[in-house]
């Protein structure tokens, strides 16, 4: 076995050893934007509570609708294999919800969640959903709901798959739907 | 795989991947009313000021369309084998700007692997200019190969370390959360035995991926299997960009597997 082979073997042994180690998180705005240079390649690695966005609307008479889950669900088409902007956009929106949950966890005790850009982006997502916006051909809220809404509210809940548990992480104030 | 053939196939596949991504980016402004730059730009650090100022200029609607058109042209040029050091540098810088536009990633791992390929392309041209083109490409291909094999290796073993994956329970749960989900009531993947067998098949495939470096025929078998795996990931999760991003790395992997 020559030196190159040994180096490659050593690299994968080291990689295997580090999989069990918990590393501290290095934080900073530029590191966040350029985290692609340090990919951890851990996809779907464990079943943990995941953030989900719920919204509800209020009619002119003050009646609240049910809570609606805003989660990307679109019909599959083979063309999506090469061109899939609506699904990728929907997944990006769900990522914003994930990032908001992370930001809330990192928020200092005296911090105001409303100042977070992720909060403002998710507020926008919730508003767009209540206003009937779509991911491609698919309405963000697939269920029929009243159209005469004047206000809305959203929640971020940490949920296990298939409703095994659900815990509210954040409830927004009531906000006007049109501004 | 012979070096010149590997270079040509790599350029075509990476160019195609960039082309498909760019066409999607071009569609987004008419679809997306949430992730808008005027709001997202507040997260860009104020220092150094020229970066934010430059980004605000580029990400206005018309300049952004020109930016994407340039990326489209460069992707086509790459497919035609006409991208050299300057072109690869521009593609690399554009990738960095897109990371800033989309809070570090538009589509997670596929952006990361695209950056790996573009970094490998840049390494090839920079190293090639300093030494010989052949040595440059070998350096770039080894960088891409180590990242690709690491991606499978880590992804496989982190799953095998978790009991829910080893028991085959996790796969069905994740498939139910997929963008095209939930699974139909009669889906095979709801069967615990099928879920267990499928889980072990693809996690072992991923975890054993470094073995692909031992022999080019083995590497070919791993690449074909991984291609099927990525297609299934697209089929259930809608992650089409992952398929093309990882496919772009296979010529480098096949070259490196046959290079010793």
Give a quick summary of the entry.
The complex is a heterodimer of chains A (179) and B (260). Chain A is of the alpha+beta class and 179 residues long. Chain A is built from 4 helices and 7 strands, in the order ααββααβββββ.
Structure description:
- The complex is a heterodimer of chains A (179) and B (260).
- By secondary structure, chain A is of the alpha+beta class.
- Chain A has one domain (31-176).
- In chain A, 32% of the residues lie in helices and 20% in strands.
- Chain A has four helices and seven strands; from the N terminus they run H-H-E-E-H-H-E-E-E-E-E.
- In chain A, strands 1, 2, 5, 6 and 7 form a five-stranded antiparallel beta sheet that branches. Chain A has a two-stranded antiparallel sheet with strand order 3-4.
- In chain A, strand 3 and strand 4 form a beta hairpin.
- In chain A, helix 3 packs across helix 4.
- Chain A is globular and about 80 Å long.
- The mean pLDDT of chain A is 91.
- By secondary structure, chain B is mainly alpha-helical.
- Chain B has one domain.
- Helices cover 75% and strands 0% of the residues of chain B.
- Chain B has 13 helices and no strands.
- Chain B has helices spanning 3-31, 37-40, 49-58, 61-79, 85-101, 109-130, 133-160, 163-166, 169-177, 192-207, 216-237, 240-247, 250-257.
- The mean pLDDT of chain B is 96.
- Chains A and B meet through helix 1, helix 2, helix 3 and helix 4 of A and helix 1, helix 5, helix 6, helix 7 and helix 9 of B.
What gap, in angstroms, lies between the N and C termini of chain A? 69 Å
Q: Please name the two chains that share the biggest interface, counting residues whose Cβ lies under 8 Å from a Cβ on the partner chain.
A: A-B, 60 and 69 residues
What is the percent of helical residues of chain A? 25-40%
Give the count of helical stretches of chain A. Answer: 4
For the secondary structure, the number of strands of chain A is 7
Counting helices, strands and paired strands, the structural category of chain B is mainly alpha
Count of domains of chain B: 1
Specify the overall morphology of chain B: globular
Distance between the termini of chain B: 11 Å
Oligomer: heterodimer
In helices, the fraction of residues of chain B equals over 70%
Strand content of the residues of chain B, in percent?
A: under 5%
Report the major sheet of chain B: none
Percent range for β-strand residues of chain A: 15-25%
| CA-based gyration radius of chain B | 20 Å
Number of domains of chain A: 1
Secondary-structure element string of chain B: HHHHHHHHHHHHH
């Amino acid at each position: 076995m020559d030196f190159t082979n040994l180096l490659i073997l050593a690299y994968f042994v080291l990689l295997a050893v580090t999989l069990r180690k918990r590393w501290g998180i290095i934080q900073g705005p530029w590191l966040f934007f350029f985290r692609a240079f340090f990919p951890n390649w851990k996809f779907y690695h464990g079943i943990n509570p995941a953030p989900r966005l719920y919204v509800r609307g209020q009619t002119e008479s003050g009646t609240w609708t049910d809570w609606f889950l805003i989660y990307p669900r679109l019909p599959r088409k083979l063309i999506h294999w090469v061109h899939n902007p609506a699904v990728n956009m929907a997944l990006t929106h769900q990522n914003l919800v994930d990032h908001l949950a992370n930001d809330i966890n990192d928020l200092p005790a005296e911090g105001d969640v409303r100042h977070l850009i992720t909060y403002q982006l998710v507020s926008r997502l919730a508003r767009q959903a209540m206003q009937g916006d779509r991911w491609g051909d698919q309405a963000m809220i697939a269920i029929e709901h009243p159209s005469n809404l004047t206000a809305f509210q959203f929640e971020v809940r940490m949920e296990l798959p298939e409703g095994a548990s659900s815990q509210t992480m954040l409830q927004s104030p009531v906000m006007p739907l049109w501004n | 795989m012979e070096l010149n053939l590997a270079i040509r196939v790599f350029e075509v596949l990476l160019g195609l991947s960039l082309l498909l991504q760019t066409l999607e980016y071009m569609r987004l402004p008419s679809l997306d009313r949430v992730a808008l730059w005027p709001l997202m730009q507040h997260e860009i650090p104020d220092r150094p000021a020229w970066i934010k100022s430059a980004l605000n200029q580029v990400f206005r609607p018309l300049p952004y369309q020109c930016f994407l058109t340039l990326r489209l042209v460069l992707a086509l040029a790459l497919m035609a084998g006409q991208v050299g050091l300057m072109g690869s540098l521009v593609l690399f810088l554009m990738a960095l700007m897109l990371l800033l536009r989309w809070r570090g990633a538009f589509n997670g791992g596929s952006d990361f692997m695209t950056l790996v390929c573009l970094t490998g392309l840049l390494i090839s041209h920079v190293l090639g200019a300093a030494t010989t083109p052949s040595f440059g490409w070998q350096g770039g291909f080894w960088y891409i190969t180590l990242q690709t094999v690491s991606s499978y290796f880590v992804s496989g073993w982190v799953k095998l370390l978790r009991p829910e994956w080893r028991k085959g329970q996790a796969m069905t749960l994740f498939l139910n959360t997929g963008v095209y989900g939930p699974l139909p009531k009669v889906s095979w993947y709801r069967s615990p035995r099928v879920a267990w067998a499928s889980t072990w098949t693809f996690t072992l495939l991923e975890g054993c991926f470094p073995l692909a470096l031992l022999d080019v025929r083995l590497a070919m078998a791993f690449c074909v299997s991984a291609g099927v795996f990525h297609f299934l990931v697209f089929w259930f999760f809608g992650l089409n960009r992952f398929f093309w991003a990882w496919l772009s790395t296979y010529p480098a992997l096949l070259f490196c597997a046959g290079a010793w």
